[in-house]
Amino acid sequence: MKFSVIVPVYNRIDEVKELLDSLQNQSVKNFEVIIVEDGSSDPCRKECEAAARRGLDIKYFYKENEGRSIARNYGMDRASGDYFVFFDSDCVIPSDYFRNLEIELRKNPVDCFGGPDAAHSSFSDTQKAINYSMTSFLTTGGIRGGKVRLEKFVPRTFNMGYSKEVYQKVGGFREMFSEDIDMSTRVRHGGFSIGLIQNPVWHKRRVDFRKFFRQVYVFGKSRVTLKLLYPDSLKAVHLLPAVFVIGTLALILLGIFVSAWFFLPLALYFLAVFIGALLSCGNLKIAFMAVPAAIIQLGGYGCGFIRDYTKKIIFRQGRDIEEEISMRKGK
């Protein structure tokens, strides 16, 4: 069984070096690495050439900037593996990842798989707080963590793969936000099996709260696009951030103008986030930082969702609905 690791890169030299170092240290070498430089002004060619001299089976391609999805598709067209595996450039891969992956796929074969991400001990406190927020049941319902909770498992491109047969039938990624959710939906609709493999990667995520807000705000907007593409895809768990935003504003106003007791539900929730982070991370500073991380995550996602749901669903403005339907039909 051979894997093709496909990584789109855009101005991420330091991250790519760490990723390649971790791939160099894998306990088994049943994979090739395909780096697709998506029009970077600061390319990582030298880092890739250095990795090749150290014995890593790596191919480097430079193309004009068209987006990460097109870059992944470009890499798949040049891949020779039985499975295509996708990592983000800000990931670090544990040394037994491919050994564990092959064992699990031989034991329980699936056409498409995904796994969780985690924070490495070397990551900053901010990255660890964001990682907790992105994987905790208290903030996501567990849908981005390592267990299946409130929604069917959906692989994400920081730790995802599918067989060559899937690519030949379903095709590649669309250039859109939440392209991995769209891809997983198309794989499921194509009749292929999807499975969760408990084989985590270390994922750096965003390095500060401002960038984190921008990221989750876009996630919220993209959930509305997915609703237009797949009308049955919107579940109750996806509405929770919007409920959080509206409920928080209501409780704050009631707390100010009616009674301070209305602040209690918010205080209890943030206390639960703090305690959960403390138990999970064992660090008081990270536990404190997890509270604003949770506020940013739920608030950013909720605001993005409310904005585009109001604009595109209620008022039918902005992106044309027929364009969404054409995308769903693959036109």
Low-confidence stretches: 145-150, 327-331
Distance between the termini: 34 Å
Strand content: 5-15%
Helix content: 40-55%
- Secondary structure tally, helices: 13
Which H/E pattern describes the elements?
EHEHEHEEHEEHHEHHEEHHHHH
Helices and strands: which structural class?
Answer: alpha/beta
Q: State the major sheet.
A: 7 strands, mixed
Question: Averaged pLDDT, please?
Answer: 91
Q: Total strand count, please? A: 10
Strand order of the largest sheet: 3-2-1-4-8-6-9
Question: Can you put this structure into words, describing what you see?
Answer:
The chain is of the alpha/beta class. The protein has 13 helices and ten strands. The strands form two sheets. A seven-stranded mixed sheet has the order 3-2-1-4-8-6-9, with helices on both faces. Helix 2 (45-53) links the parallel strand 2 and strand 3.
Overview features:
three-stranded mixed β-sheet, globular, 331 residues, alpha/beta, disordered C terminus, seven-stranded mixed β-sheet, 10 strands
Structure summarized in a few sentences:
The chain is an alpha/beta fold. The chain has helices at 13-24, 45-53, 68-76, 97-107, 125-135, 137-140, 164-170, 179-189, 209-229, 236-257, 264-281, 284-314, 321-328, and strands spanning 3-9, 31-38, 58-63, 83-86, 91-92, 112-114, 117-118, 160-163, 194-196, 201-203.
